[in-house]
Structure formats: C-alpha cells, structure tokens
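Posting this for the archive.
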Amino acid sequence: MAPPQVRKLVTAVDIGSSKVCALIAEPEENGGLKILGTGQRESRGIRRGFIADMERTEATVREAVEQAERIAATNIEDVFVGFSAGGLISTVANVEVEIGGDRIERDDIDQLLTVGRDAIDPQGRMVLHALPALYTLDGLQGVKNPLGLHADKLAVDIHVVAADPAPVRNLDLCVRSAHLGVSAIVASPVAAGKACLSEEERELGVALVELGGGVTNVSVFAGGMLVGLKSLQIGGIDITDDIASAFGTRRTEAERMKCFYGSASTSPRDNHDMIELVPIAGGEDGTEAARITRAQLIAVIRQRLEHLTGEIANALKELGFAGPFGRQVVLTGGASELKGIADYAQGVLGRAVRVGRPKLPGLPEAHSGPAFSTLAGLAQFAASDELDLRQVMAPGSIVRKAEGDSLLQRLIAAFRTQY
C-alpha cells in the first residue's frame, strides 16, 4: 500500500493589541489557499504590540489556535507569527559583483545575494526580512531578472526589516510556550501589503497605513517592494480611551459607542441624535441615564484623529513619499473600520485614500474586514516561499551601504522611464 499523503498546511497567528487570531489554510495547485479554519480571542497581556504578561498571552494564543484546529479538524505544529510592535525599522544595503562582460549565470546571482547577506548591518536589531529588490546592470536600474544578460557589473538593493530583539524574543518564547513551533516571525507591513495591495499599486508606488489597536505602521511600497516604514505608538485604543475618559464610561462601553455611533465625518443631524451613557460605577435606581449628542462623541474622535493623521503625514514626509509619486494611500487595520475615515484622511493628507481589505477568497465573512489584513497576508506569505537572504550563508566582497532613501528615489526614476 502507498503511504498516506501528508497534507501541507500553513498556519498564521496574528498577535495584536486588541485581538489574537489564527488561520489554517491549505495551499492549492493554482496558487490559491483553501481556508480550513479560523480562531479569534480578545487580547490579554499585550500592550502596544508588546507582550506584558507572558502567561495570559500564551493562554490567549493557545485558545485562538485550538479554535481554528477544531474548525479545521486537524492539529498543527508550526505557525507563522505577525510582529507589529514598535521598533520596526527599514534600511537599505547595496551590493555589487564584477561579471567582466560575461553572460550572467545563476551562480553569479547566487554570489551577489550571498555577498548581500554580509552587507546587512542591523545595528544591534534582529533581522526579520532581508529581501532583494531590483537589480542594476552597468548603471541600468530597475531590472527584475538579470539571468542570461551580459554585464560588467551586477548590483542589487537589499531591503532589510529589523526590530528590537527583546520584543521579538518574547513573542517567540510566548508562542513556543503554547506548544507551537515558529516557522517565521513576519513584520506586519510585509504581510498586510500582500493581503490588500494590488501588484500594480506595489509597482507604481503606494503608502500602506495599518491602523492597529495600539500601533500604527506606515510603510511605502515601490517597484513591487516594501522600501520604507515607520512605527507610531498610537492606534484605535487611544480613541476608545479618549471616549471613556471624556464621558466617564467603561472601555467596553466606549468601544461600543465608537463602533456603533462613531464617525470621522460630521452632519447637521449629529446634534439631534442622542446616545445614552453607562457610567463606570453604574446608575443609581430612579435616576435618569445621562445622554450625549452624537456630535459630542464625534468631536472627541476627530480630536484624536487630527493628531493621528498629523503623525502619519510626518511619517510619509520622512519616508520620501511626496510629489507625483506619493498620491495613493491605503488604510487597513481594525481602526480603519471607523465610518468616514477614508474621506477624512484624504482631506487631511491631500492624497487619494481607500480602505484596504484582504483579497483572499474563502475567508469567512467575520474575518474578511480590514482588521484581518495581517492575518490573511501571513497565510499568503507562508504559502509564497519568498527568497530571504537570511537563508543565504557565505562571505562577501564588494559592499557599500546605500543612502537611507536612495532605493526609493532610484525606484521612482526607474519606473518613470518605463511608463
């Protein structure tokens, strides 16, 4: 008898400030993913993406994965984990090898990528990704595949995503303590970009803004690659806390008010729509419940949004996302579900803004919103088996560090010459 065929499954776990969710999928021959099961639990022991209570977080991870396992009717051993805490940085290294006018063979490209590994200088941080961008042949930029071409010199820009080591190690330890192996820890901008950006957007240039519960990650894509990112310690939880503080109510009630009545846009009707408040200590018998207008709620929300969008605008400026190139912004993450937020951000940023949702067929309706972009992208990343230079091991030769934003500028120039 032939041995039973082993199913190749991928499992993604997104550990965020507001929720922990898991997804089990089976890669299909056509490149798609068949969703087998999902699980979700409210986050416990996590603040601003950082693990603050190992035991509570470990239990939450185990519960979310077990729920997905029950639905999928299978047991899993290894997972791909999303990392969204602050401290994420993006750097660029440029490496070059001499070809001598010969035809470029696979060994030449392998040698170049091997050299690239030693060009990585994370400055004490832990490297999560080391991804080769476009190649340069004798000064010709924007080459996707140099194999078979002739050149004197072959160069490549390597985009490195790194993070502070302690939070990454804590995340790894937490997942392993839940009796799960860690296949890889993936930066959430890399995963979310896979899930809700089109290939053309990533080629021509787009900014992705992940509005998470405790962290907002601003990242820039060009030439099909993530070329820059910045983490902001602000998110949807801050809006919830502002509401709770302003009106003296519990966080759970403030979250409910934000989701059901909150908006980033205003209308004359807001002054007439009334919302009942549930005070922290509870109302006394016989007393009438306090009420506020919807306009008062929206005023609190917009005050926090004004600060948030200002920080996003500054981050985009620092990342060089400006001019004709910087026209498209995509919002995703749970906080982007706030009504009217795309129009509000478009008015403040002066750019076209849309809300990005995961493009993964078969996702349950409850997990198909922007809050689950990172989860869906993790599964897609796990199934794609992308080249990562951390897997390349060997010494290098000609290495020089690129300027901070030079890759972005080179990509812009290269793609302008193609259209």
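The mean pLDDT is 84. The radius of gyration is 23 Å.
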